[in-house]
């Protein structure tokens, strides 16, 4: 677990355990063995602080534009890491899931989608893509559905009970500008900010999509970001409806307003995609996992956005980069950590033209 993370309600950071060295290892091993044997964790771990984080889009006064992150006990998070490591040994997640999987990243999914689109453009054939958005995916997962999916994935009953205990009698308070709310129970959804939640969500999505997903790259998932591709509009519409039914009958919900449709090499009169009779928004470009893909195969907009992201990163640390008292070595380290990754994100998946390479080089020189 990384240092410097926000602490939960008891203000004990993970750095405490790291500083104690071998003594901490022995103590935590003894504590975790008792928790595993009794299948009951300390009551203090059930409390958390919920902090609403603005998504930087939409109305700041709308609660739907905030993501709630739970600040939980760091000691519990270490315990979650132990449980996660054991679950990963027995649970096999489908190849279509790119999120939170070893040796997979966002750029793998972006690259797979770009290559698929490129092949269909080269062959002058249509490719239909629907980018599915799930409403409040983590917060909507029914607890009973989670236990069912864990058992179906082959998780031993003891570890199902251990995870159930993590969610029993969980309580939280909301931290806001004027203080904290009264404490209340949390009875649905996964813990946002939990170390174990991403893998639990992957288990749920793996089971819910089992009957309807196709081979990668025709169906790809990165946690709750789903893209469905097909050679025909009718087929992608059918696959979308089958996926919607499979997810919504088990407690999830597909967003009608944020799900979008894009057609590569579109011919005249190719029509639109409908979801339960409602027309899905048709777009010429889509920001997929932070990288803009365009229906015409161009990448000019993505290059411009990368340049802008580089400048935004530079502005955040300009106080350091422009300070003459700070050594060139430190400035270089800050630049390589903050500015350059923002500018180059996802570009390894793009076939750049000479003009676009020059644009990136000139922008970096300008920084």
From TrEMBL:
InterPro entries: DNA/RNA_pol_sf, Rev_trsase/Diguanyl_cyclase, RT_dom. CDD domains: RT_nLTR_like (cd01650). SUPFAM superfamilies: DNA/RNA polymerases. Its EC number is 3.1.26.4. It is an enzyme of class 3 (hydrolase). It comes from the Eukaryota. PROSITE patterns: RT_POL (PS50878). Residues 34-293 form the Reverse transcriptase domain. GO terms for molecular function: RNA-DNA hybrid ribonuclease activity. Belongs to the beta type-B retroviral polymerase family. HERV class-II K(HML-2) pol subfamily. PANTHER family: ENDONUCLEASE-REVERSE TRANSCRIPTASE, REVERSE TRANSCRIPTASE DOMAIN-CONTAINING PROTEIN. This is ribonuclease H. The lineage of its organism: Eukaryota, Metazoa, Chordata, Craniata, Vertebrata.
